Amino acid sequence: MGVDGVMDHAFMLDGETDAEALSQRYSSGLLAHSLGGYTRPYHIVIVGSGATGVELSAHLATDAVGAALAPRSAQPEVQITILEASETFMSGMDDTVRQAIRERLTRASVEIKTNQQVSKVSADTVETNDGERFPADLTVWATGRVDPPIADKIDGLACNKKRQWRVRRTLQCVNSDTLFALGDCAYIDDDPAPPTAQAASEQAEHLATELPRFFDGERPANFAFQDKGTLLSLGEAGSVGEVRGHFCEDLQVRGRLARAAYRGLQRQHQFLLLGATKGATEAISDVFGRSIGPRLKVY
């Protein structure tokens, strides 16, 4: 990571086990805080203001029930702070949508601090290069990760500083015509795609078409990312987003329309990955899960 203490004291969100560990720590931390008789809030610091960090902050602030270990009636006050290294909150997002998100987070009592380059993470504090210290009973690292060191050790595959394999617009590695890479592990030198599931899904569809052509001796076509917009679910603070239009101006959506669009996108992704039968099963499971289970959403 390059930041002292991250691997020891911060939670990552790379898989299901990470989400379960975070949920358990959050629940038990709330209970211990209440039983300890503390009068101060329970502090959560989220490093990074991308979609993952922003959605997580909103759900923890407005929509989280810490399971049976800490029922809502026993929960202490929770103070959530987002730390962003750059001067812009949610860089790359449309200004109007960004402002709508900021307003909702502010109403949910989520603090947003920009120009905060984190230098050290300890068991109860997050420190920045400027010497500022933020109390943290729970720290979540949501800035993205550097790929494993083994990526640097594979001969013939060039990497960038994040150990992503450098690829051409055809998604072929820059120094190999026969090796392709996609998703977070790949970086397109000439036209980088965002490190999102939307981009990885489009790349997978692209290669599903182009690899058979490549095996037939044809040159694969260049990949071009088609941004379909961004939708964010902010718990009880609402849903906001922007849908890219092919034949009209971009559409900014909020409230119930944004929430419906978000759920529709989630269903589409489930059906794409799992197929019709398993996708339908997951959709039904999600409906019953929201009705009878805890509403904490962790990525």
Offer a concise description of the structure.
By secondary structure, the protein is of the alpha/beta class. It is 35% helix and 17% strand.
Report on the architecture of this protein.
It is a single chain. The chain contains six helices and twelve strands. It is an alpha/beta fold and 299 residues long. It folds into three domains: 6-141, FAD/NAD(P)-binding domain, CATH 3.50.50.60; 149-215, no CATH class; 229-292, no CATH class. The longest helix has 38 residues, at 255-292.
Shape assignment: globular
The percent range for strand residues is 15-25%
Q: Are there runs of 5+ residues with pLDDT below 50, and where?
A: 245-258, 291-299
Please give the order of strands in the largest beta sheet. 3-2-1-7
Number of beta strands: 12
What is the H level of CATH, i.e. the homologous superfamily of the largest domain? Answer: FAD/NAD(P)-binding domain
Helix content: 25-40%
Structural class: alpha/beta
CATH class of the largest domain: Alpha Beta
- The CATH topology annotation of the largest domain reads as FAD/NAD(P)-binding domain
